[in-house]
Amino acid sequence: MKRTILAACMAALSLSAGAEAFRDYPDLPPLAAVEQALKATAMARTAQAGMGVATANRDALRAGSYEFGVRVGTQQRRVRVPSEQFTEWDVGLERALRLPGKARIDNQLGAQGITQAGFAYGDALHESGRMLLSAWFSWVREVNQRQQWQTQVGLLRDQLGIVTKRIKAGDAARLEQLQAQAALNQAEAQLAQAQLRVATTANELAQRYPAISLPTSPILPQPEPVEAGLDYWLGRALEHNHELALARGAAERSRLQLSRSEADRVPDPTLGVRFASERGGEDKIIGVNLMIPLPGAARRANQASALANSAVASEREAGVLTKIRTETTRSWLATQSAYSAWQAAEQSASAMRNSADLMARAYQLGESGLSDLLTARRQMQDAQLTAINARLDVAEARYRLLLDTHQLWPIDADEAGHAPVGQ
Q1: Alpha-carbon span 363 to 361, nearest angstrom
Q2: CA dihedral for 94, 100, 101, 104, sign (positive or negative)
Q3: Which residues are within 8 A (CB) of 236 and not within 5 positions of it... i.e. 6 or more apart?
Q4: How many separate domains does the chain show?
């Protein structure tokens, strides 16, 4: 009893410690809403239902397919000398007996199925988290682009007003007004498209994750470099990875099934008791019967099939391990590259902004034409959009790396009762 209480306390401390490792990020949805949203996805609900299936399968394996059977027969006996006729009958109760080694393997298969279902649920939460993270940053990206186009439209409207006043004052040609109007119309068209993209991405988030309320103006993330080296991230990815756990579990299950098929080479005996009445009830018979099947080619074929499946599962496990290493390396490299790209994009946007400001002053002083100013404004807009996208790429790559190493959101529901997957 004391050991049970101690184990429960340790488990509770472990879970609370794991929960404290997660925190709210200002540029992401609230942690509580994320957890609720992930558990409510169709993928997670399907995997959770699969845990019930695994439990039923475990119970079925524990019970086995060995059931009692009743055998009933009747016959007529005729005797020539003296001429007599008797009604006879017999009834028997039979049941196949599962050998102890087979029962042990079946219990292991049932328990392993429960473990697999737990990892499948965790994997569903993980994949749902990836989809949520991608959808969230798509929406944030479109919102910030809309804001940028709104700013651009405002600048071009002001510019059109300035040109119109200059035309009235006789300081500008009619052509400049046409150029300013065309630039404004193009920017308004881009703004309309940006508004459509915002509505589309917001609708996707609302439909897939109704638990998440979208803020009016999302916070633009401040890029942070990923300091730890690749070896650290590889270790974390391999220690906490549902896909690898599922592959290793499948390999273990195939090995258990191979052991089960090897055990089936020895047939299970069927034991029965029999009661018969002969010669019209004059003879009463009580007996015991034992039936042992003779193994045939099917059992050898099943064993060969299980052996091949075990080899396939082992190769698949090796493939998943390589895939995880490759994806983690790519994600880590993406964070490094994205951070450098963002720094360069910010410098470019700042330079283009200064250039556009200088060109605007030059136009006011009559030292440059409107065409040059509109070109500078368009280049500034492109540079700022590139900088915003680069900033969001840095944040998304970093959060994706944290998510894949189980440091962003609580997606380890399966590990409450299971040890972490080793490297």
Answers
A1: 5
A2: positive
A3: 405, 406, 407
A4: 1
Q: In what order do the strands lie in the sheet with 270-278?
A: 68-79, 84-96, 270-278, 283-291
H helical segments located in 169-241 = 174-208, 230-239
- Predicted structure pTM score: 0.81
Helix (H) or strand (E) holding 335: helix 297-364
Q: Give the whole-angstrom CA distance, residue 343 versus residue 142.
A: 21
Q: Encoding tokens for residue 171? A: 């300081």
Is the separation of the CB atoms in 268 and 97 below 8 Å?
yes
Half-sphere exposure at residue 162, Cβ-oriented, CA atoms within 13 angstroms:
16
What is the reported pLDDT for 172? Answer: 63
Element (DSSP H or E) covering residue 17: helix 2-20
Residue ranges making up the domain that contains 285: 31-416
C-beta of residue 342 within 8 angstroms of C-beta of residue 391: yes
The tokens describing 221, both together, are 């993330």
Q: Give the other-Cβ count within 10 Å of 418's Cβ.
A: 14
Question: Residue 95: enclosing H or E segment and its boundaries?
Answer: strand 84-96
% the chain with pLDDT above 90 = 48
Over the stretch 348-363, which tens digit does the pLDDT of each residue have?
999 999 999 898 888 7
| Band of residue 297 on the pLDDT scale cut at 50, 70, 90 | confident
CA dihedral 312, 317, 323, 326 (to 10 degrees): -130
Which pLDDT score is estimated for 171?
67
d(CA 140, CA 151): 17
* Mean pLDDT lowest among 13-27, 49-63, 88-102, 162-176: 13-27
Averaged pLDDT for residues 204-214: 93
CA 129 – CA 408 distance, rounded (Å): 10
Give the torsion through C-alpha atoms of 161, 165, 171, 176, to 10 deg: 30
Q: Is residue 17 part of a domain?
A: no
Does any domain span residue 169?
yes
Flag whether 2 is in a domain. no
Output the domain CATH number for residue 290: 1.20.1600.10
Q: What is the sign of the dihedral through the CA atoms of 339, 343, 344 and 349?
A: positive
| Residue 217 belongs to some domain of the structure | yes
Residue written as token pair 């991230």: 233
Interior/surface letters 191-220, b for 16+ CB within 10 angstroms, e for the rest: beebbebbeebbeebeebbebbeeeeebee
Tokens of 318: 């090796």
203, pLDDT greater than 50 = yes
